[in-house]
TrEMBL record:
It comes from the Bacteria. Pfam families: tRNA-synt_1b (PF00579). The keyword Transcription regulation does not apply. One of its GO terms (biological process) is tryptophanyl-tRNA aminoacylation. GO terms for molecular function: ATP binding; tryptophan-tRNA ligase activity. It comes from Kangiella geojedonensis. Belongs to the class-I aminoacyl-tRNA synthetase family. One of its GO terms (cellular component) is cytosol. Keywords: Aminoacyl-tRNA synthetase, ATP-binding, Ligase, Nucleotide-binding, Protein biosynthesis. It is an enzyme of class 6 (ligase). Its EC number is 6.1.1.2. This is Tryptophan--tRNA ligase. The lineage of its organism: Bacteria, Pseudomonadati, Pseudomonadota, Gammaproteobacteria, Kangiellales. CDD domains: TrpRS_core (cd00806).
């Protein structure tokens, strides 16, 4: 199977190692990863270079955070037999592709990424007027493109990053996909498809180019993918010929929209360490109980016999995630009638959160007691990731005239 056809089912996603993961990470990302690993060829990356973009002035905790992150992933159900777990800095091809793509990427593209100014405003106590911070979206693009990943799981707010990756790949292919004799080689590749498929391919290409019909493009791409008797190079030429470009060196990925996280913080805002409202995935039970018991509730319930409104209470958001229907009905009835107090209302949440966390703690124990298991998992994942990254960089260097063979 070609790398292009594999890539269409390949997923790349990652996290920066910034400390213990919390329940927002689990319900917002890791549960989705655990499901995807059975549907896609998944590469999950600990993005330690990305951690440097905002924490370059203190790197003392990064190594420990890397291992903590991997343990939390495994505790959440990420299976190294079903996915590839690796550390970004252990695959230097990411940096090489980032460097080479920086030669063709316009400065304005980086400056217009929405999160660039947003992060600068949020982190005003940090000096983010650095090349590394400006260029991190391009490093993200290199992370994706070096694996020819067809899909990138993101929330709606991250779609601009994927779009910039597509633009960077398109521009790269425009400059370096024009191999000598491209048209002739495409003509020969089309003939290899057989008369019927060749006619269909040309018809779909014409409809896409003349009418902009996206479904024709997708049908033509699927047709190319289904051809078992053509080489990888011919397959890449046929993909590139469809949209008028040359040979596809770096395939454009698609945003794989993930469900919006419903996990709130203790104060009702989005759960975040920086907001001080988070519960870690493996936090001790005593700490969890204390945090939930002291959560704010509906401000209208000043006294025990004051009726309340669950929709105005952060605890209700936890019930939506953790409680079965009968408990939610009990809360609705009891809160609005003052039949139950806030302390009573919080207890089922405490029990459910702690039961979920106990699973994480039990799964993590094996890895905490035997660190060599973690290191072997990451080492094998890095080797697997680097094999693919090297293949991509061979193609890139050859296209750019840097192979010197």
């Amino acid at each position: 199977m070609s790398s292009i056809s594999v890539g269409q089912k390949r997923v790349l996603s990652g996290m920066r190692p910034t400390g213990p993961l919390h329940l927002g990470h689990y319900h917002g990302v890791l549960k989705n990863w655990a499901q995807m690993q059975h549907e896609y060829e998944c590469f999950f990356m600990v993005a330690d270079w990305h951690a440097l973009t905002t924490n370059y002035d203190d790197t003392s905790k990064i190594e420990g955070y890397v291992w903590d992150t991997v343990i939390d992933w495994l505790a959440a159900g990420i299976n190294p037999s079903s996915s590839t777990i690796f550390v970004q800095s252990k695959v230097p091809e990411h940096a090489e592709l980032h460097l080479l793509m920086s030669m063709t990427t316009p400065l304005g593209w980086l400056e217009r990424v929405p999160t660039y100014k947003e992060q600068q405003e949020k982190l005003q106590n940090k000096d983010l007027s650095t090349y590394g911070f400006l260029g991190y979206p391009l490093l993200q693009a290199a992370d994706i493109l070096v694996y020819k990943a067809g899909n990138v799981p993101v929330g709606a707010d991250q779609v601009p990053h994927v779009e910039m990756t597509r633009e960077a790949a398109r521009r790269f292919n425009h400059f370096y996909g024009k191999e000598p004799g491209f048209e002739e080689k495409v003509t020969q590749a089309i003939k290899k498809m057989g008369k019927k498929n060749a006619k269909l391919y040309n018809s779909l290409r014409k409809k896409f180019q003349e009418e902009g019909d996206q479904s024709s493009l997708e049908t033509a791409q699927a047709l190319v993918e289904s051809q078992a008797n053509i080489s990888l190079n011919d397959r890449e030429r046929l993909y590139g010929y469809l949209d008028g470009a040359g040979k596809v060196i770096l395939p454009e990925p698609k945003a794989l929209l993930t469900p919006v996280s419903k996990m709130p913080g203790l104060d009702g805002q989005k759960m975040s360490k920086s907001y001080g409202n988070a519960i870690s995935m493996r936090e001790p039970r005593e700490s969890v109980e204390k945090k939930i018991r002291t959560m704010p509730t509906d401000p209208a319930r000043v006294r025990r016999d004051d009726p309340g409104n669950p929709e105005k209470c952060p605890v209700w958001e936890f019930h939506k995630i953790y409680s079965p229907e009968e408990v939610k009905e009990w809360v609705q009835k009891g809160c609005t009638s003052a039949g139950i107090g806030c302390v009573e209302c919080k207890q089922p949440v405490i029990d459910s959160v702690c039961a979920e966390q106990q699973q994480f703690v039990e799964r993590a124990q094996e890895y905490e007691e035997s660190p060599e298991i973690i290191r072997n998992i990451v080492s094998e994942g890095c080797d697997r990731a680097r094999d693919i990254a090297r293949e991509t960089m061979d193609d890139v260097r050859q296209a750019m005239g840097l192979s010197y063979k």
